[in-house]
């Protein structure tokens, strides 16, 4: 069934429609400066699609809570819930197919990011039986997926960015269709914005934002100036759910109103200067009186402490022992490293098709999500330790027995200091040299690099050779031999054009 909702009208007066089923599969990005009509556009979209699909609105300003009166959305006040509670709420939202508005207005920025990440994680982690279609609308998306680090903690930024990345990159298979709105594309993380296939671009003034908007819409740079001239509520649409070519549309009216401030001019009340002075400097008839602020002196503080000490009853000997036991610091818990369990989850993550070719941040986020589903704390394995295990996996050494040779420990120490791009490749070459096995092929080196490209394999070998980490030679039959000067090892001759498993790849 095809459902086309009317977003407004074109310049020719024809209805501008949006294919709702196509939107569920392709996602939407809305961009426009403050006052361009983004919130009005989102409200129109939510109202028109409310009876067709379940919705969740992440609302940092509390502007969409008025949807509850007319459309039955449940307003969830994020300030009244912990992050763990919000995850459970999100799971119930999907189980019972209830449309909600997550109101974040009473939280400061860092807590907004943490609570939004927990809520989105709950929507994402629900069991497969509840993967019903849902529109997830995120207003002011640059707050939750910033392009650069800001004043918030790195942990909060990573959690929020990871949740937004999951929504836009992997949410489709779970029935989640991300609709994100931002004031500036330059402030939004590129890997989040790049996953949208539908665009509605509103008024913007900065050259860099106009150029990026024109690039996304497939327009020439000289046409980018048109975004300065767009009126409030006018957008340029493009995408499989909207139009195959850039189309200027005007967003239609909405039935509900937001709680944002009114930007229209309002005449000041006619008040005499004397009366105005009394209004602000004298207490009103029903205004509660505030207690005067009294700052204690040093003498007052000393007297108060003496009175408290004198009034405290002396404990009995038994009570004194109890109080001493209670006040003593608790013994440190014995660490129980969940190494086996975490390794099982890591193997589960890496067993997915194409997992090794994703970015480290995406794999780590997937690892944390699956750890939560198994009841484990994945953060006991920090990012640095996770990178090392991922490097071993990309090098194809995860299932091999650990070598007792002390020289291999030296090779691991050298690899750890080389950085995440080179470490798995160095481990792959070092293990082949230690075992006197054939030199790994370009395909195997590219896999360790997290790529399918043989050119990248050659590029990383050239880079390592320029740094003196390896030396490459060729025998009389064209087979490649790689030496590792720092270890004094070298591989056996190997065919660089073989596949990952050693089979010859036809050129």
TrEMBL record:
Name this polypeptide is given: ATP-binding protein
SUPFAM superfamilies, sorted: P-loop containing nucleoside triphosphate hydrolases
Superkingdom as given in the UniProt entry: Bacteria
Keywords for the protein's UniProt record, in alphabetical order: ATP-binding, Nucleotide-binding
UniProt domain Helicase HerA central: residue ranges: 7-108
Xref: InterPro entries: ATPase_Atu1862_pred, HerA-like, HerA_central, P-loop_NTPase
An example molecular function term from Gene Ontology annotations: ATP binding
Pfam families: DUF87 (PF01935)
